[in-house]
Amino acid sequence: MHDLTAKVQSAVKKSKVTTGFAHVFAVGSTAGIGAIEFEPGLKKDLPEVLSKLIPPGRQYGHEQTWHDGNAHSHLQATLLGPDLTIPIRDSELVAGTWQQVVHVDFDNRPRQRQVIVTVYGE
Amino acid sequence: MHDLTAKVQSAVKKSKVTTGFAHVFAVGSTAGIGAIEFEPGLKKDLPEVLSKLIPPGRQYGHEQTWHDGNAHSHLQATLLGPDLTIPIRDSELVAGTWQQVVHVDFDNRPRQRQVIVTVYGE
Amino acid sequence: MHDLTAKVQSAVKKSKVTTGFAHVFAVGSTAGIGAIEFEPGLKKDLPEVLSKLIPPGRQYGHEQTWHDGNAHSHLQATLLGPDLTIPIRDSELVAGTWQQVVHVDFDNRPRQRQVIVTVYGE
To answer: In the prediction, which pLDDT does C36 show?
Structure first.
């Protein structure tokens, strides 16, 4: 799990947008974007909770075709979702002090990842 | 759980936007925004279902650091997500008759909450 | 589950927007929009996983009022969410090769469904 907040805030600053929103999108079907307090406890808890809800295993239809061991990664990513939109006011992201924008990689092998940030407004 | 639909619709009217969308964002890491039929049954069911999936407890990493009893609140909020975007056509939100925009507070103590509505379009 | 990707891409082309985003919204409280690899395995897995997390049944408050057997449909739809926003660059949706935009109908009877696509940008 990676904290993207500073990078998104930096894109907001560069854009000169004062009122609007920033849209963050994880390219790829085994990663997602979430809002969470970025601290070591929750950084461990979120993947654990999702793996309890949707455990790794061979029981998935996806595995029977692809045998790559990451059906749960796809399903966890869909449940979290790939996108998040955060409002901008006075050239700043308006989010809680303990509310960070994070990228969560659910895959079972290291991947190079792309995240697209779009800033929109006036 | 609070129904925000009338307030969002009112922001749409004030904005004079006829075609576009309204973005609703819950500030804070223990609340979320969802779309659901706002009726007493589901108002009870949604928090119950989320507390069954992610129960309160001391087993979370977050608890071991912060001991504030709301790790499940953070995780439930992340799963629901803090944002929702609804299309606007003919100056009206386009959502189902039984599809309301709701704020759900997952925290274990009363909180003052801020919700940001951004209307965008033409 | 239906793959909407080609239809959304077609709306992007028609709009002449080169940089911006496409917003996809499922009207109605028992359907949702998700991002997933659209292949037969996951097409079966996603509804199964959600029905394991939130099973059909008579235990819901919604059922005690409405008796229409679809409380779980409402709750599954809320968990997946009704909306998704995908970035546009060079007049194309920027999503992974295996990352499709899908409409998932959770209801227990056939429904006519409406999906609203809004393309925004420059």
So the answer is: 98
